[in-house]
TrEMBL record:
<feature type="site" description="May be catalytically important">
    <location>
        <position position="162"/>
    </location>
</feature>
<dbReference type="GO" id="GO:0003934">
    <property type="term" value="F:GTP cyclohydrolase I activity"/>
</dbReference>
<comment type="similarity">
    <text>Belongs to the GTP cyclohydrolase IV family.</text>
</comment>
<protein>
    <recommendedName>
        <fullName>GTP cyclohydrolase FolE2</fullName>
        <ecNumber>3.5.4.16</ecNumber>
    </recommendedName>
</protein>
<comment type="function">
    <text>Converts GTP to 7,8-dihydroneopterin triphosphate.</text>
</comment>
<comment type="pathway">
    <text>Cofactor biosynthesis; 7,8-dihydroneopterin triphosphate biosynthesis; 7,8-dihydroneopterin triphosphate from GTP: step 1/1.</text>
</comment>
<keyword id="KW-0378">Hydrolase</keyword>
<dbReference type="GO" id="GO:0046654">
    <property type="term" value="P:tetrahydrofolate biosynthetic process"/>
</dbReference>
<dbReference type="InterPro" id="IPR022838">
    <property type="entry name" value="GTP_cyclohydrolase_FolE2"/>
</dbReference>
<dbReference type="Pfam" id="PF02649">
    <property type="entry name" value="GCHY-1"/>
</dbReference>
<dbReference type="InterPro" id="IPR003801">
    <property type="entry name" value="GTP_cyclohydrolase_FolE2/MptA"/>
</dbReference>
Amino acid sequence: MNDLNTSFLKTNTLPDVQSNQDSRALPIERVGIRGIKQPVLMRSSNGSFSTVASFEMDVALPADKKGTHMSRFVSLLEQDRKEIDSASVATMAKEMLPLLQAKQGRIQMRYTHFVKKIAPVSAVQSWMDYQVTYLAEAKQGVDEHIEVDLYLQAVVPVMSLCPCSKEISDYGAHNQRSHITMLVKLDSDAQLTVEELVRIAESEASSELWAILKRPDEKWVTEHAYENPKFVEDLVRDVACRLKNDQRILSLMIEAENFESIHNHSAFARISLP
């Protein structure tokens, strides 16, 4: 019987092509991996839950380097992290730079955030889902201290009822499902939860949504929305007013899109504040 040849396990015998010099004198702004999915345990203000996150990770590559070490991005994701939150994403971005021997880089994590909600009348419980993105941009300073800019985006589905339709109609008013997108730049030391953003968006809409509603709940939602009409312009202004004075938020962008029920197009509005 032949002995097993284990030479392939000795990586120091193989050439490291990525570390070679490049003579084209062209730096690369971003190089990395995109679309890698990982199961994660997310920490939230209402406890932890399991979900699946899609990651995009990249670094800046100097002009004299031929390539980056793609497998090290995956190795960073594979490290055992019991729970993930905004601080975890910022920490990963800081760890990525020395691991990839880079001066700057980005980690973007998109996932479905779940919140257990209670219907307004029947009190039946159900899970609502929200699309959430964390973005951490890391940069090494002259003293090798790594600074991280952290962004949080949440897309919150709500209900909006048209004030104009209510005013001119003898019978009811048209309403539609809307998406409120909030993108905020956070103070890296501040704790702003996804649940806080969700509650602000939902409270400024004509009505929030639930996954399960019984007939008494449906009556409540319909009447509540009718008493609280909102244009798409009202949605972005009201949410921006709630967020603009929050000291934990350094800048913000609010966008609302109404998926019109009486038109074959959407209406939208956007506000950005430094």
